[in-house]
Amino acid sequence: MPAPTLLVVGGGGREHALAWSLRREAPDAEILTAPGNPGIAGLAECIPAGAGDIDQLARLVRERNVDLTVVGPEAPLAAGLVDRFEEQGLAAFGPSRAAARLESSKLFAKQVMRDAGVPTADWETFSSAGAALEYVDRHMEPLVVKASGLAAGKGAIVCETREEARAAVRSMLVEKNLGSAGAQILIEECMTGPELSIFFLCDGHGAYPLLTSRDYKRVGEGDQGPNTGGMGAYSPAGAAGAFAGSVDELVEIVRIKIAMPVIEAMAAAGTPYRGFLYAGLMLTGTGPRVVEFNCRLGDPEAQVVLPLTTSGLIEPMAAAARGEPLGDWEAGNADRAALTTILASAGYPASADKGRAVELPDFNPEEVIVFHSGTATEGGRLVTAGGRVLAVTGFGDDLDQAARRSRRAAGKVRFDGRHYRTDIGWHETGHGSPVG
After folding, report:
1. How confident is residue 332, by pLDDT bands cut at 50, 70 and 90?
2. Among the four 1, 236, 300, 428, which has the fewest Cβ within 10 Å?
């Protein structure tokens, strides 16, 4: 069988991890990325095409005889890239525009969960600031205020007090700081417990779990400060919290009670879900409850889950794109641990200090891999080009070793204004537990 030609759409850390995983699986494959980044350039051919330019991407696929397109970020999925490709007979792995509403509309996702009996936080939706503020005044704090639309990972605000909730409501509905993404908001009860991420590879009929992971959204040590797109993650993650069973038992419960009811509901509605489904969970005292769904791999979770995934992904992704069932496919079990530390630019998450020269040493790839999230090249040198710049992933026989390698390597990378957390993984290592 000839080596495939593959296209990865996107240019962040998740797409770097995807390209790395595909190259490991198929060393002879021709791998293209659009637009890619300087880190991906060592693994694949970077094409100067925007992830949202669907017409240009379709032309590229036809001209280069691409066998399978794998869509990384959420925006082209929500814009209907997979639908357009299918109309032209081009194979693309990812949900259709209608199915991607599980992420692009938090209101839609909540309605699906309600109808399917999937456990999640109690919620109400608002498009009027007055009604939302009245709701805040009547309900106990803390509260969570979420933009219903896509907000680049910054649309959920955990509000410890009613005043913080009022400010979040005004920011979205009055000041319109999130634009159309915040034109409709949800206000939820604040669930408590450890968080857990589980990705499922879905074929429209079934949900096949990848390894568990846990990410860290707050910018500061001890889970302090504002939410970000993610400051680090590790895998596999244990069944922390009130759940008394094994991780495998927990994953099966989530598959049966959360993933499958959603997959079945989408199929019944005529919008079968094919692609990666991210279930962000809270392990509460009453069991796992959904924080949110995403219609793609998470970032930075992909940078720890994919390197540990021992089964090949190309054939199951291609089969799902063709609408074929995956049968008894399994992702495999990890015999190592991985932990990634995000190096962020000065000002992140409020802003991103760009154009700073990056000094990136070479590391032993058996111990550390650096995935590029927000970098560029200028005048032959590597520079910062985003808020989250690099994901420094360490590997080890256990999580402690992976954490030490990740943090030691992160400390050796240099650029002006860089900051990072040194407590990623505290839930299981016990190092750097929450302050205050």
Report:
1. confident
2. 1
How many residues would you count in the chain?
436
Q: What domains, with CATH codes, occur in the chain?
A: 7-94 (3.40.50.20), 128-183 (3.30.1490.20), 195-321 (3.30.470.20), 337-429 (3.90.600.10)
**Residues 201-231: pLDDT tens digits?**
999 999 999 999 999 999 999 999 988 989 9
Q: Taking the CA of residue 199 as centre, how many other CA atoms within 13 Å lie in the half-sphere pointing to its CB?
A: 26
Instruction: Label residue 207 exposed, middle or buried (CB < 10 Å: 0-12, 13-18, 19+).
Output: buried
Q: Tell me phi and psi for residue 339, to 5 degrees.
A: -140, 135
Q: Which residue has the tokens 């990623």?
A: 424
Calpha distance 278→8 (Å, rounded): 18
Query: Residue 73: phi, psi to the nearest 5?
Result: -85, 165
Taking residues 379-399, what's their average pLDDT? 97
Residues contacting residue 56 through CB under 8 Å, at least 6 positions apart: 49, 50
Q: Beta strand pairing status for 207-215 and 232-235? A: antiparallel
* Residues linked to residue 199 through DSSP beta bridges, in sequence order: 278
